[in-house]
Amino acid sequence: TLAERTNLAGVRHILLVLSGKGGVGKSTISTELALALRSAGKRVGILDVDLCGPSIPRMLRVQDSAVHQCDSGWVPVFVGQDKAIALMSIGFLLERPDDAVVWRGPKKNALIKQFVTDVAWGDLDFLIVDTPPGTSDEHISTVEALRPHQLLGAVLVTTPQ
């Protein structure tokens, strides 16, 4: 649809951060990558699709922020004094940041699709997508929703064991 093309039209590269298991540091890598790209002068966004464990808002100290609507969808939360990192996470949509999200596949998939199509990212050099652990519905939904767009690739986070 037109809205899908419009909201991601200004995003030059999309980078997925994935792993086969939990607790390996995907959110930390996503956050550090965003901060490094920002300090290199790039415009960066983070899309946190880890619906059951959205930790990036806390890592960037914006967990008390709220998401607002605009004509083209949701306005992401802008991080830091320079507002240089745009962030969207389910953490902003929960009444309390530590609330558990107990959803089945179709509802999760719909929210991921909505995150991809309805967030007004503006012009970004990089959109970093922090995914949940494993290779589940969320990953398939994310890749399917992003398929029409220019994907840079993926960072696979592993541990020695």
UniProtKB/TrEMBL annotation:
Which GO terms of the cellular component aspect does the record hold?
Answer: cytosol
Q: Is the S-adenosyl-L-methionine keyword given for this protein?
A: no
List the Pfam families.
ParA
Cited InterPro entries: Mrp-like_CS, Mrp/NBP35_ATP-bd, P-loop_NTPase, YlxH/NBP35
Q: Which UniProt keywords apply?
A: 4Fe-4S, ATP-binding, Iron, Iron-sulfur, Metal-binding, Nucleotide-binding
Descriptive protein name: NUBP2 factor
**Coiled-coil blocks:** none
GO biological processes? iron-sulfur cluster assembly
Q: Give the transmembrane region(s).
A: none
**GO MF assignments:** 4 iron, 4 sulfur cluster binding; ATP binding; ATP-dependent FeS chaperone activity; metal ion binding
Domain of life, source organism = Eukaryota
CDD domains in UniProt: Mrp_NBP35
